[in-house]
Specification:
This is Cytochrome P450. Belongs to the cytochrome P450 family. Keywords: Heme, Iron, Metal-binding, Monooxygenase, Oxidoreductase. One of its GO terms (molecular function) is iron ion binding. The chain is mainly alpha-helical. It has a single domain, classed as Cytochrome P450 (Cytochrome p450), CATH 1.10.630. Helix content is 49%, strand content 7%. It has a three-stranded mixed β-sheet with strand order 2-3-6. It has a two-stranded antiparallel sheet with strand order 4-5. A hairpin with a 5-residue loop joins strand 8 and strand 9. The structure holds protoporphyrin IX containing FE (HEM).
Length: 473
């Protein structure tokens, strides 16, 4: 992990240049790889200096727990993100919200009421329906599996947040939200925009060549505002006509009334469900497909475990979860192997602090977990021992800002992954000589890191499952 501050010379870190500090060494792309390398050199907590602003990196779970959980009263702020927060406008959302304490508590209470470990079970039918739809889409058009997985995840989150059923990939709830989400991931990439480490450039005139970031921010802001208006207006119209599906927004709108402030808070916190929950949940699922294609021994074990439960005649459901421990271990392992948010979401310490003799000024820790195990070796068995789970769950963050959707996310992951394993075999594409061509896959940069698209064969495993779903639809 890393922490940023105005004067933390106590901490070790790479030597930088006068004034620029480590600006030229700090990667704008897949920064977590360099942070992991620096972690090996400088230890579990070190600092970077970007234009005189110190950034503190925490590179172990223990330091993260010591600071972000045990001292969460002072480590739960978010850093000022000028590009994503102020210029594009995301600082009103939950994720970048600076602690205006009462508002943040209210947001988190609303979210917890809906997504807490027990409450989230109300969405199991929505999640099971999305799993069935995923299986049908994969059976009709397996080559587009990335889009089908994304749609399954998105439709679940949109249903939970807005009560809206997505009926095509052209649905504005999908198109506008995906655009806004992609923009957010780029805008919030740590240190990717000069304005975030050198705030005075915010004031340069729009017409100057260096002001490209401002023009980008205006466009992204407009797209974000369109999305916010479209989503809340859709639910308000449904309430007015009396035909309203229960959802996060409709429940809060009906209990709090439609006055301006309440409405503003509701639309922002609902959008945070989407931005927090859609793109992130896609990553472990697409990574699992990759693991199934590259590791036939893992796939065979998963299939054997599944067949004992379903006998190849039906899709699994939530009641089957305890009988599928290897699947659970595989899901934890893919989240550890390729965390959806490799550098975490930065926290900021609000007062000066001292940790193990190091002075920690106000700063923004970025969580990295790659030091925990050999990051490149897939070994689901490590989770069957039972004591390693907390470490993977660190991918959901720490302390008062821990992901409020972690239970909902794990439920969606379980049911979508289990259904795919039950229904399909995943194989590499073969060349003309019949030799398998294993996909070599890079992960994208940005706050959320996805596997780049790859090809594989997805073939039904059982003659019974797909007709069974079609009949039950
Ligand atoms: C595999 C899926 C997911 C991963 C890996 C993930 C990861 C994270 C992480 C790392 C954070 C920041 C935590 C911190 O600052 O310490 C976060 C925040 C958040 N997540 Fe998730 N998340 C996932 C799914 C979801 C889902 C399904 C939802 C909602 C339905 C959700 C909603 C949120 C929200 C609203 C925040 C902001 C919380 C705050 O700043 O107070 N996430 N998530």
């Amino acid at each position: 992990m890393v922490i940023v501050s105005s004067s933390s010379d106590d901490l070790p870190g790479p030597r930088g240049l006068p004034i620029l500090g480590n600006v030229l060494q700090n990667p704008l792309d897949r920064e977590w790889l360099q942070y992991t390398a620096w972690g090996k050199q400088f230890g579990n907590i070190f600092k970077l200096n970007l234009f005189r602003q110190n950034v503190i990196i925490i590179n172990s779970r223990k330091v993260a727990v010591d600071l972000l959980e045990k001292r969460s009263a002072i480590y739960s702020d978010r850093p000022r993100l000028i590009m994503a927060g102020e210029l594009v406008g995301w600082n009103k959302g939950v994720t970048l919200r600076r602690p205006i304490i009462t508002e943040l508590r209210r947001y988190r209470k609303d979210l917890h009421g809906m997504l807490g470990s027990k409450a989230t079970r109300q969405f199991w039918p929505v999640q099971e329906k999305a799993a069935k739809e995923l299986i049908l889409s994969l059976s009709k058009d397996p080559s587009d599996f990335f889009a089908h997985i994304r749609r399954a995840v998105t439709s679940t989150v949109v249903k939970i947040a807005y009560g809206h059923d997505i009926d095509s990939n052209q649905d504005p709830f999908v198109t506008l939200a995906e655009k806004a989400q992609a923009n957010f991931s780029l805008a919030a990439t740590p240190n990717a925009f000069v304005v975030d480490w050198f705030p005075p450039v915010k004031f340069i005139p729009d017409w100057m060549p260096m002001a490209g970031f401002k023009r980008k921010a205006y466009l992204w802001r407009r797209q974000l505002e369109d999305l916010l208006e479209m989503t809340i207006e859709t639910v308000k119209r449904a309430i007015e006509t009396g035909v309203v599906e229960p959802s996060y927004v409709s429940t809060l709108l009906m209990s709090r009334g439609l006055d301006g402030d309440a409405e503003d808070e509701i639309k922002w916190s609902a959008l945070s469900l989407y931005t927090g929950g859609a793109d992130t949940t896609v990553v472990p699922l697409t990574t699992l497909v990759l693991v199934l294609v590259l590791h036939p021994e893992i796939k065979a074990r998963l299939q054997r475990e599944m067949d004992l439960v379903t006998s190849g005649t039906r899709l699994p459901n939530f009641q089957d979860r305890d009988s599928l421990p290897f699947l659970r271990a595989c899901l934890l392992e893919v989240m550890r192997f390729r965390p959806a948010i490799p550098s975490g979401v930065a926290h900021r310490v609000v007062t000066e602090d001292v940790y193990k003799g190091f002075r920690i000024p106000k700063g923004a820790p970025i969580c990295l977990h790659h030091d925990l195990y050999n990051p490149e070796k897939i070994q689901p068995d490590r989770f069957l021992a039972g004591d390693n789970e907390d470490r993977t769950l660190a991918v959901f963050g720490f302390g008062r800002r821990i992901c409020p959707g972690l239970h909902t996310a794990q439920d969606s992951l379980f049911i979508l992954a289990a259904s795919m394993v039950a229904a399909f075999d995943f194989l590499p594409i073969c060349d003309t000589m019949g030799n398998p061509r294993l996909p070599m896959v890079n992960y994208t940069t940005g706050m959320i890191s996805h596997p780049e698209q790859f090809k594989c064969q997805i073939i039904p495993r059982s003659k019974e499952i797909i007709p069974f779903i079609e009949e039950s639809e």
